[in-house]
Amino acid sequence: MANATIRVQFGNPDDASAVPGHLSAEVDTRPTGLNGGRSSFSPGETAYILVFKTDDVSITDTICSAGSLSPHGTTTVTVTEELMFEDADTATLGKPARSSLGQVVWFGRSLGELTLQSDRVTAKAANKGVGVAKVTYDALAQVYALVSPATLNGETDFSILALIKGGAA
User: What are phi and psi of 99, to 5 degrees?
Assistant: First the structure.
């Protein structure tokens, strides 16, 4: 059995030249996604990777340790996640929302209506406090196809590292 590995490079947040925004990547494990819900692959197969970014980030380079990595269009992904408000009125989404938040369900204490901020990753509650909200939203993903060779140095059990680099848009 082979593994798919992703490395996403980020700058030092204390560095004034660091790129703001969001860049993340993951293997498409959605049951109806491009990999059919799979997260492990056989040699010679193609693994599809979803890359999420905010508008202020551009992809500057894509490199893989073996095989080939190429863009394969875009797709919309519906995301459901829990946001934690830790004595605050803001929380950060795991991926940039496409346009707005969909369904919001508060578990326990409600901090009021949630609004998506202009950076598309910050959710702001009407009130400050401690709370947990389950949110659903759509995110736009760029799709990359990682094509694996059938063997690597005679091995049929190996990992491939994919690096997606981002810079200021």
Answer: -145, -45
User: What is the distance between the alpha carbons of residues 33 and 90, in angstroms, rounded to a whole number?
Assistant: 31
Q: In one letter, which amino acid is 122? A: T
Rounded Cα gap, residues 159 and 43, in angstroms: 10
Distances (CA, A) of 108 to 5, 14, 77, 128, 131: 37, 36, 27, 15, 7
Q: What is the pTM of this model?
A: 0.86
Strand 46-53 versus strand 122-147 pairing type: antiparallel
Spell out the per-residue pLDDT of the chain, length 169, in tens: 444 455 544 445 455 445 578 999 999 999 999 999 999 999 999 999 999 999 999 999 999 999 999 999 999 999 999 999 999 999 999 999 999 999 999 999 999 999 999 999 999 999 999 999 999 999 999 999 999 999 999 999 999 999 999 999 8
